[in-house]
Design the sequence.
């Protein structure tokens, strides 16, 4: 067993390094080819007061005058030593910017992820157990609507109804505007997280609910459920003892593989609600050609998505003995 | 009075044909069967004759689109869902057909133990495992780790309760080693001797006549003959129905004689005897009306000519 885990981890680590190397090369090349001039976007409104010489100096300061390969090697060399560089727009170490933003985003994503997992699984299972009833129709209808609705649009709607018309929750930002950092309460953080969190969770609910429903219908029709029923098992016990494990597989895979969509969704949700998280920082870094920050964010999100997929793989092995045990274990 | 009494059982399925048009397909019609306490009744017939459906109908686990009429009585009472809830897995046990009836994600030991099982059942099962040559370690295996024969034995051991009064065994023996088959059969025999009623569904006539008291021959969803097991001998001259004779004579040891044609699928509505178009002695009257069951020489037969 221990040896199995060691092999599993070893393989995954090798893959992770290959993946990170490839992703950083591609991203670096894409940024280098992009039409955005980092110097121009840095100067912004001061364009009249900055001369051509000064521009060249800024470019030289950032090393933008060097050829692509050299810049990449320099960046990669620093990265290996643990230095991710300095963000051009925030003038702070990239690690620090990401660290701060990450704390905001991670709570938001965790909230949305948990919410969509629990809601999706529950309504999916409920729909399957009452297959063909009005409840099932309402749930599937709702899921199809959600699945075909863009998250940012839902975000705008929520903002309009809940924040603007009803005034129940703040319109945006991570903390109340104009308040000293010291006087922001935990409650304030939560209040600001609810709307972006719900918006973000909507992306994940429909696929989990629909897959769970489909799988549970299949399982409830299977021979082994028939046999369990023939032996007097029924109701909640039948579901929890015999069906739950079988439908957990697709739900777990989807839930953990959704880390990528979660990150992508966070970019939109944070943008709509001006929520100061990783997603918003990514948009900024991209639009203003902040290469070190963008690279840092890309590596960070790659790691995030990779972790999700690896966890899905790992839990799959835990839940399904057919993957864990060798067929030859029989005697 | 018989412990299990099935009268006029008909099963049909609602199916969708082309788009949303519904159609009922009848797969079993007016089946009669009775099993007494301490008796083994074997149900033999070709694949698709409705043997497993009979088992599922008795257990009340037919699929949702199945409609059935007729009555199933257990100990004189109508065996409805209410009564079944009391008896399933308790007095009435099912030995299912294949390894797919085991939950693929649960260890054998833990799924054999239902909520009704106590220490007595566990030790009973332990004894049966030993008798069938299954090691203790099998309890810790998952169904996919079992070989075909092992899976059968595990399934047979699910009915290892002395509390059972009726056991419905659906093809429990194929794939098992001959020695194990004998062991499993003697297990059922022993249960019957202890007063249990056993409905032994099989297509292995030789196994059936070894342990059964009576054999019911089922053809296209109807019982065409119920005969004492001892009638299955020689050329089958003791048998009443032409299909039973044909079935007996088709065995390798009894001439290996095939008959032409195939079992009718019940989606077409047959007016007359189900076996008429394959029967050597069919006459016009066989085509017009399905013969009713009648008593004959200590058995039952649904044929106009049987003597």
Sequence:
């Amino acid at each position: 067993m221990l040896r199995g885990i060691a092999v599993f981890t070893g393989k995954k680590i090798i893959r992770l390094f290959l993946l990170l190397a490839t992703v950083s090369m591609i991203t670096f090349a894409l940024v280098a080819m992009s039409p955005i001039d980092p110097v121009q976007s840095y100067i912004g409104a001061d364009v009249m007061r900055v001369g051509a010489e000064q521009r060249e100096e800024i470019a030289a300061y950032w090393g933008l005058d060097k050829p692509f390969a050299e810049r990449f090697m320099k960046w990669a060399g620093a990265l290996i030593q643990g230095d991710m560089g300095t963000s051009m727009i925030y003038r702070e170490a990239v690690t620090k910017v990401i660290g701060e933003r990450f704390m905001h985003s991670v709570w938001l994503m965790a909230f949305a992820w948990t919410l969509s997992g629990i809601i999706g699984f529950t309504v999916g299972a409920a729909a399957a157990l009452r297959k063909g009833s009005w409840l099932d129709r309402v749930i599937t209808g709702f899921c199809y609507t959600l699945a075909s609705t863009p998250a940012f649009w839902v975000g705008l709607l929520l903002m309009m109804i809940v924040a603007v018309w009803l005034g129940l929750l703040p319109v945006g930002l991570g903390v109340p505007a104009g308040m000293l950092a010291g006087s922001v309460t935990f409650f304030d953080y939560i209040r600001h997280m609810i709307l972006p969190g719900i918006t973000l969770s909507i992306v994940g609910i429909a696929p989990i609910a629909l897959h769970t429903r489909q799988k549970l219908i299949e399982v409830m029709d299977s021979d082994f459920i028939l046999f369990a029923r023939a032996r007097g098992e029924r109701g909640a016990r039948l579901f929890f003892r015999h069906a739950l494990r079988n439908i957990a597989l697709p739900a777990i895979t989807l839930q953990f593989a959704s880390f990528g969509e979660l990150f992508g969704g966070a970019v939109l949700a944070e943008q709509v609600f001006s929520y100061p998280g990783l997603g918003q920082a990514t948009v900024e870094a991209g639009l203003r050609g902040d290469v070190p920050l963008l690279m840092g964010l890309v590596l960070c999100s790659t790691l995030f998505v990779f972790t999700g997929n690896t966890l899905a793989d790992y839990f799959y092995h835990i839940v399904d003995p057919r993957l864990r045990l060798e067929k030859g274990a029989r005697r | 009075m018989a412990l299990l009494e099935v009268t006029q059982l008909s099963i049909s399925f609602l199916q969708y044909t082309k788009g949303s048009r519904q159609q009922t397909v009848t797969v079993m019609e007016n089946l009669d069967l009775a099993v007494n306490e301490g008796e083994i009744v074997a149900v033999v017939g070709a694949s698709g004759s409705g043997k497993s459906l009979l088992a599922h109908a008795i257990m009340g686990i037919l699929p949702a689109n199945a409609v059935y009429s007729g009555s199933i009585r257990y100990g004189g009472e109508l065996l409805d869902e209410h009564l079944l809830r009391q008896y399933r897995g308790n007095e009435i046990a099912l030995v299912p057909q294949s390894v797919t009836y085991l939950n693929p994600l649960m260890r054998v030991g833990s799924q054999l133990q239902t909520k009704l099982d106590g220490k007595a059942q566990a030790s009973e099962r332990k004894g049966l495992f030993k008798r069938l040559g299954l090691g203790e370690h099998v309890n810790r295996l998952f169904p996919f780790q079992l070989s075909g024969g092992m899976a059968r034995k595990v399934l047979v051991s699910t009915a290892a309760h002395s509390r059972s009064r009726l056991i419905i065994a659906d093809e429990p023996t194929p794939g098992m080693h001959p020695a194990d088959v004998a062991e499993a059969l003697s297990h059922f025999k022993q249960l019957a001797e202890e007063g249990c009623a056993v409905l032994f569904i099989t297509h292995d006539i030789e196994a059936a006549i070894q342990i059964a008291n009576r054999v019911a021959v089922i053809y296209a969803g109807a019982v065409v003959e119920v005969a004492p097991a001892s009638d299955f001998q020689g050329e089958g001259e003791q048998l009443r129905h032409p299909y039973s004779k044909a079935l007996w004579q088709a065995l390798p040891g009894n001439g290996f004689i095939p008959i032409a044609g195939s079992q009718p699928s019940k989606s077409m509505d047959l007016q007359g005897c189900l076996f008429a178009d394959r029967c050597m002695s069919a006459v016009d009257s066989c085509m017009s009306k399905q013969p009713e069951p009648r008593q004959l020489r200590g058995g039952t037969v649904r044929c106009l000519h049987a003597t």
